[in-house]
Structures are given as C-alpha cells and as structure tokens.
Amino acid sequence: MLETIGYEVVDLGRNVDCELIAAAAKEQNIKLVGLSALMTNTVPAMENIIKMIKSGKSDCKIMVAALLLQPITQST
C-alpha cells in the first residue's frame, strides 16, 4: 500500500530476529519501521526491537499493529 504512493518499502519478511530489524533500520537510515503481530507472545520481541532502535539514538519512528499492545505502551 505504501509503495503505491511512492514510499520505498524494505520487507525483511516474517520471524525476523530483533537484532536484524534494528540493524537494518540503522544501516539503511530507515525513517519508519512497521511491526505487525497477531499473537500476544510476540509482544516482548516488539518491545525489544523498539528499545534497540531507540538506544541507537535513531530518529526512526515505529508503527506497531497488534491485537494486544497494552504491555508495550505501559513499559515504554
């Protein structure tokens, strides 16, 4: 959807390691990372990714889509 309006999209795929997502965001100077999950057991990984990206002093924004976000929004 974003590609159709001119955004360049880098799709890292499914079940990608947290470290790889954070490294790709930094190395490619990504301005927006989109994370999506439908299972609650993936929420801790999403929290780790957010912390890794933010610890790198990146100005990258993070968009999260999931069924259960309360643990992330309360702890970050």
Description:
With 76 residues, this protein is α+β, with helices and mostly antiparallel strands. 38% of the residues lie in helices and 16% in strands. It has helices at residues 18-27, 43-55, 70-75; strands spanning 32-37, 61-66. It has a two-stranded parallel sheet. Helix 2 links the parallel strand 1 and strand 2. Helix 1 packs parallel to helix 2 (43-55). The chain is globular, with a radius of gyration of 12 Å. The N and C termini lie far apart (28 Å). The model has no long low-confidence stretch (mean pLDDT 83).
Largest sheet: 2 strands, parallel
Task: Give the total of beta strands.
Answer: 2
Order of helices and strands: HEHEH
The Rg value, from CA coordinates, equals 12 Å
Structural class: alpha+beta
Number of helices: 3
Could you tell me the mean pLDDT? 83
Strand content: 15-25%
Euclidean distance between termini CA atoms: 28 Å
The outline comes out as: globular
Major sheet strand order = 1-2
Instruction: State the helical fraction.
Output: 25-40%
Low-pLDDT residue spans = none
